[in-house]
Amino acid sequence: MKHWKVTLFCAIALSVPVAAFAINLEVPFGTKGYATDLVDYIVTLYQFLISAIGIIAAVMIMISGLRWAAAAGNAEQIGVAKEGVTNALIGLILALTSYTILNALNPSLTTLTLDEVSGLAFSSAAGTGNCTAMTSGPCTVENLKTLGFGDAEAEMAAGICAAESGGNPTLPSGVDICQPGGEVVSFGLFQFNLTAHKMTDPSTGATLDCPSAFDGGPYTFSDHTCTVNNATLYAQCIAAAQDPTTNINAARALSSGGTKWGHWGANSKCGYPS
Question: Which keywords does the record carry (predicted)?
Answer without folding.
Answer: Membrane, Signal, Transmembrane, Transmembrane helix
